[in-house]
Amino acid sequence: MAGKRNIGTTTGERLARGRTREKARFPAVPPLAGLPGGYAELLSEIKGRIGEARLRTVLAANAAMVLLYWDIGKTILDRQSAEGWGARVIDRLSADLRAAFPDMKGLSPRNLKYMRAFAAAWPDPAIVQRVVAQLPWRQNIALLERLNDEKTRLWYAGEALRHGWSQPILCMQIERRVHSRQGKAITNFPATLPPEDSNMAAQVFKDPYLFDFLGTADPRREHEVEQALVDHIQRFLLELGTGFAFVGRQVLLEVGDQDFHLDLLFYHLKLRCFVVVELKAVAFDPSFIGQLNFYLSAVDDLLRHADDKPTIGLLLCRSKNKLVVEYALRDLRKPIGVAEWETQIVRSLPPEFRGSLPTVEELEAELAGEAEGAEDE
To answer: Is the dihedral of CA 143, 145, 147, 149 positive or negative?
Structure first.
């Protein structure tokens, strides 16, 4: 009997276990309906703070790593200059560092050589800390491999940091020589916009615009260009630059019982205004300005919100004469910029032949004339 009592469970033990089971539970998430009215705002605020803190942590870690790479590269560079070290030293240094820090990546001989080149390219530590260290290491390698002079390299570093360019986008912008085209469009912004808006708007527009994504096609009509750009809207927006939001193509405006259609309409998020883009498959003609000026007036009256700034016009032509454009823009009250657009086929021509070859229309007219002559014979 005694043995059975030992094997069995007493009432006290059963109660103790019962209390233990009562404390072990799976908490159910309270329904949103029963929570206070400010809960959603509280959740959003805390999520925002967590996101910001995590981003600061990542950026701080990246900056610390890039600065460390610069310091390592500077040390190697100084020792090589002072003591004449060769490539074998870097190979040995890489092996020893990887043995000492097996969990650390980025200590290969190739990356140590990048660190040395990085330190040589950026001799001023202040610039490294202020700009370059804020970029991921892959972006810094792209700057080293693709650019030779510090001024241009610093320009792309600043733009990549400002616009958040990924490494592939940065490489593409370098290849397309954005720095030599940015802010080059002929405009009347200084006379039509406040100084702070004029400077910002001037930097938004380029000259020329490169529509390489159209391939070797050479559209001969405006509607063909429009359709091709809309078909490649992502690439087109990338070429336009950061801040452009696509509103529509052939946007209808009714003025005085007549219908008018805007080629392309955008809204620029930083300039806080509509941007009307008119495309021409021919050389610039002063009459184009009058048409675009009319469209800007209509958009300002019909589409512009009270908080929006004046609508800006961008006229894209196949070619232009700078002096003619400047005369056409003089004394206008609406802000307008004029630039050229090019396709891959035009860019592939040597500079001395650009503009000297006959247009498609001229070739067609010549062929038509030859055909008529053959029929007469």
So the answer is: positive
> pLDDT tens-digit profile of 146-166?
998 899 999 999 999 988 888
Among residues 203, 235, 192, the alpha carbon closest in space to that of 329 is found at 192
3-state secondary structure of 254: strand
CB count within 10 Å of CB 349 equals: 13
> Which of 286, 273, 93 lies closest to 186 in space, CA to CA?
286
Bridge partners of 252, per DSSP, are 261
Any idea what DSSP says for residue 206? B
> What is the location of CATH 3.40.1350.10 in the chain?
186-350
Scan for tokens 């009256």, then name that residue: 301
- State the pTM of this model: 0.69
Strand (E) or helix (H) holding 279: strand 273-279
> For 186-350, which CATH class?
alpha beta
**DSSP class of 309:** P
**Helix, strand, coil percentages, rounded to 5, for the chain:** 60, 15, 30
- Take residue 150 and report the two structure tokens written for it: 């510090």
Residue 204's Cβ-side half-sphere holds a number of Cα atoms within 13 Å equal to 26
Tens digit of each residue's pLDDT (9 = 90 or more) over 301-353: 999 999 999 999 999 998 999 999 999 999 999 999 999 988 865 454 455 44
Contact (Cβ atoms closer than 8 angstroms) between residue 248 and residue 232: no
- How far apart (Å, rounded) are the C-alpha atoms in residues 377 and 375? 5
Six token digits for residue 148: 């030779």
Nearest to 337 by CA among 176, 163, 192: 192
Distance of CA 1 to the CA centre of its chain: 86
Structure tokens at 33: 């309906």
